[in-house]
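call fold(seq) -> tokens
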Amino acid sequence: VKCLGGPGAMKMGICDVPAEQMKCEYGDLTCMVEVVENVDEAIDWIHKYGSGHTEAIVCEEGAEVGEEFLRRVDAACVFKNASTRFADGYRFGLGAGTWGDNYILSLALSVSLSVNFFERKLV
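ret:
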């Protein structure tokens, strides 16, 4: 898996290779990682750069941030602590792999409501 970094991830040294563009659906084992300060920034980032197709969050069980994410993210499929593989092109009647197997994955790991990333598109 190749992980490309957004500005925040690059600044923190999480990734070695910067993403050339923030809004991109990869057709291979590539994901883009970004780090944000809180759930509001994560959701704003998803609404600006996400596909509108499938988004996911990874968080502690019972964390309020997960329920907030589910309520506020505008996408066809929104998952909490689940694989986004459940929402591929095949399930929408579009044929396997139509949407690609990876997406921009924005994961939120709540520490003191700091949101860290992971792609739905690793999260």
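Helices lie at 7-11, 39-49, 64-72.
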